[in-house]
Amino acid sequence: MTQHWEDFKNADVILLMGSNAAENHPMAFKWIEEARKKGGKLINVDPRFCRSSSKADIYAPMRSGTDIAFFGGMIKYAIDHGLYNEKYVRECTNALLKVNTGFETCAEGTSGVFSGTWETPPTWNDTLQADVDAKYDKTTWNYGNTSVPEVAADLNDPDCVFQKLKKQFENYTIENVCAITGTPAVLYEQICEAFCSTYPDDKSATILYAMGTTQHTIGTQNIRGYAILQLLLGNIGVAGGGINALRGQCNVQGSTDMCILNHILPGYLKVPTPAQTTLALYNEANYNSAQAANPVHSYTVRGNSGVDPASAHWWQNGTKYIASLLKAWWPTQTLDTGYSYLSKKTADYSMLSIFDAMHNDLLAGFICDGENPAVTDPDSNHVREALGHLDWMVCIDPFETETAAFWKRPGVDPTAIGTTVYLLPCAVALEKYGSRSNSGRWAQWHWKGGNPPGEAKPDLEILTLLGLEIQGKNHTVLPAPITNLNWPYFNYNPDDDELTKAEKCAMEINGYWLNPDGSIDTTTVNPSGLVTSFAALTNTGTTCSGNWLYCNQFVDPVNFDAFENANPGIWASTPGNRTARRYTPDVPNGGLSADPLYTGIGLHSYWSWCWPLNRRIIYNRASTYQSDGGSSGAGLAGDPIAPNKYVLRWDGAWKGDVPDHGGAPGAVYPFIMTKEGHGHLFGGWTVAEGPFPWHYEPTESPITYPAWLGAYRMNPTVHIYEGALFAQHGEITPTYPIFATSYRLTEHWHGGSMTRNLPRCNELQPEPFVEMSEELAAIKSIANGELIRATSARGSIEIKACVTKRFKPFRVNGTIVHQVGFIWHWGYMGLSTGPSANILTPFIGDANTRIPETKCFMVNIEKIT
Q1: What is the pLDDT of residues 611-644, one digit of tens each?
Q2: CA torsion, points 494, 496, 497, 502, in degrees to nearest 10?
Q3: What residues contact residue 192 under an 8 Å CB cut-off, 6+ apart?
Q4: With the CA atoms of 395, 400, 405 and 409 taken in that order, what torsion angle do they form, in degrees rounded to the nearest 10?
Q5: pLDDT in tens, 484-508
Q6: Does residue 367 contact residue 295 with C-beta atoms inside 8 Å?
Q7: What is the DSSP letter of 300?
Q8: 639-664 burial: b if 16+ Cβ within 10 Å, else e
Q9: What would you report as the CA-atom Rg of the chain, rounded to the nearest whole angstrom?
């Protein structure tokens, strides 16, 4: 999330797409309503008229899986009508940089793919019975000069990024887009006009999304489309702007920051590969070399030779962050030794790949902490069957979940299952201390409200005791990484209470100064030894940090700022634990005395703490003029482009939010994490499909792929797992004639193992159902509340029908497409049981992240008589 929850109130237009925030994020919707009270407009795009739609100023239906077509048309509309912020585009994006002359967009050839021969060509048949990942040769996906890119004189240069972007989407006309999405053309044009009206400096629009955007085989490129549109309009880094992921649970952001994803280390550091056998090779590949994805020698973008000093290119500091992480884990070891302990990634370890490996007897054991994949993962029958291939499984959960009980699920003989299951009861969130990082990156401390029942323990204690037990064993295979691991939480002082233990964990994540022997240095810098900023981290082994992004969340009292010293009552826990600050008035960084002109945009700089460095809106230098002469000819460098809701302003020093780099106006380009310091209209060097998005149909699609889009009907770079089952693609067949999606309810949470064990939640929503249009129900002779059987290529479920006006048939490419929606919170355990919709969903995922495509699949529905 580039912004935070309260910032939504500053938007002139809010586009809610891939999210039903009124039901699933009601507190987010509070701030949407605040924006509307001030005249802001809410646009909701959803295949179903949901509760968010009922509040929208403009609602438009869109067939699931057609986001790129929808946004591609908006990008074309903005460019064709001149509705883009030209000064922002020239100064803050890579629009003027010239692209490799061999690069071709998807629109320039006949196959609908980018330039570059296939390293591995895509091969599949209609039911996708193949196991080949198509891979592009990406040589031309770069600037013309890869070390010093040439800058075009203006945006009309045919080789510049802007013109390549224009070419990519030239055929995304309103007519072509609506023929794919099923959106009425009149409504679509209204949306384009309303959203693109925010390109002037004093306007802003925000995009809010959730799993409806990401759970597709082109989910990553959906987000790229959002980024491109917002960069064109000048809506990144400004109040009321940005791209904002509405997380589905209260600490999803925190778990992502701490590397719950398989391709990163804490703080989004790269995972080593087998070729990177030493720390030097790892740093060279990822953070140092001119050939690396993020070279330390920043690109020049204004004609300077060599390194451009205005490009901060912050990832060059990755050498310091990986060194500090290694010292957090193995403080007594050298950096090279610590690096040798790190596992090297040899394959994809996403959940889909884990269960594929499990099914193929490649995994002996499985620890499942706070997950219930027997309900939440696609092709649930396949997942449940795969669990039976394990020797052992540990489940850590407050209740016996479907995953823990897979061996005794309906229709299975328990004596035929050889997996030993250990169920460890754990405390729920309200029964333990710690912090949660919300969608807006605010890390907020929370306190236990009571003790867990029986033998249940907090996760921190379970994992700590498990680690201590493992360390105490006599290991014969690779013992050093375990025996030398820093595992101090219960060793500091056995008498520490739970709060102290949790705070000590937070301190280690923050980081310390270290002595040569790996002990904490409490004399050189400050009495606690706590590092006060990631800018202080080193690559020499003198600092440790469990996550560089969280440096500054816990500070020594000698490092309190003036506002903290003047307001000692802000600490709701240990002074110095900034995540426990609770100052309710809305003040900027430093307080109102530091910036008396503050306009009250909702920074709340002293409520909790926000990474990085308490910066509430990232890339916020883009909210000021980069050079003298604003769009009106006024405006000096450092002046806010929207004075009525400024994020930053320069007055000899930066005022307002914590600046995204402290350099003076014009000294540093605003997008400090990219190598050239500019936002990427053209980018995606590390993604599989290409540097611009392109519409591909879902794996299971009800329509014939339009010829103007090219030869590849679905994402050609997607991975297909051997044995995965799919419906025939590209037409409505008698076997599976109905298009389907899945979603959640307010009254139940995720896999339901918590809420389905709460009687009151079950009273509110007692059973799962499938929503269908009145038109489809009439064709099928199904009445509201009747039991139906839904079948996909993977399985079938029996579920009640909810006949509703919320769904309407789509007219897509000349074909009538009926779409239905399944609720997926249920399973065979708990006080309320029922079938999981994920029995129906396909075992396939995004080409980059492998997030499952649970939002698009084909089914048949029959009335049970």
Answers
A1: 999 999 999 999 999 888 654 555 789 999 999 9
A2: -100
A3: 73, 74, 77, 78, 174
A4: -150
A5: 999 877 665 666 788 888 899 999 9
A6: no
A7: P
A8: bbbbeebbbbbbeeebbbbbbbbebe
A9: 27
